Amino acid sequence: MHELDTDLAQDAAVIRVDTRLTMVNAPDLRAAVAEALDAGRTTVIVDLGRCEFMDSSGLGAIIGGLKVARQASGDLRIARLTPQVRIVLELTNLDRVLKPYGSVEEALDDR
Questions:
Q1: CA-CA distance, 101 to 72, in Å (whole number)?
Q2: In what order do the strands lie in the sheet with 2-5?
Q3: pLDDT range class, residue 11, cuts 50, 70, 90
Q4: What is the CATH classification number for the domain harbouring 81?
Q5: Gap between the Cα atoms of 7 and 85, Å rounded
Q6: Is 110 among the domain residues?
Q7: Structural domain of residue 84, as residue ranges?
C-alpha cells in the first residue's frame, strides 16, 4: 500500500491498496490517510482496484479514515472496487455510507 500524490488535483491524495486489506496492513491505511490530511489534502481517494480481499479490520480502517477525514472538513472516497470488496460493502450496507466510484478520476470530479 502506498500513497500516490496525483497531478489531477492539488488538494487530493490517492492511496492505492495492493492485494489485501486486512488486520496486517489496516494500520498502514490509517497512517496514510492521516499523513494525507496532515499534508493539507482535503480529499483522500482509496483506490481498491488491486484489492483482492478485505476483512473487517480493513473495512474498519476505511470507515475510520472516513471519520477522520470528515472531522478535518475533508472527505474519503473509494474507487475501483473489486467484486469481493463490493460484496463486503453491500453485505454491511456500507455502500450507502461510502459511495463507490468506477475510477479515481470520477471520485475526483464529484466535488
A1: 22
A2: 2-5, 12-21, 43-54, 75-79, 100-101
A3: confident
A4: 3.30.750.24
A5: 27
A6: no
A7: 2-105
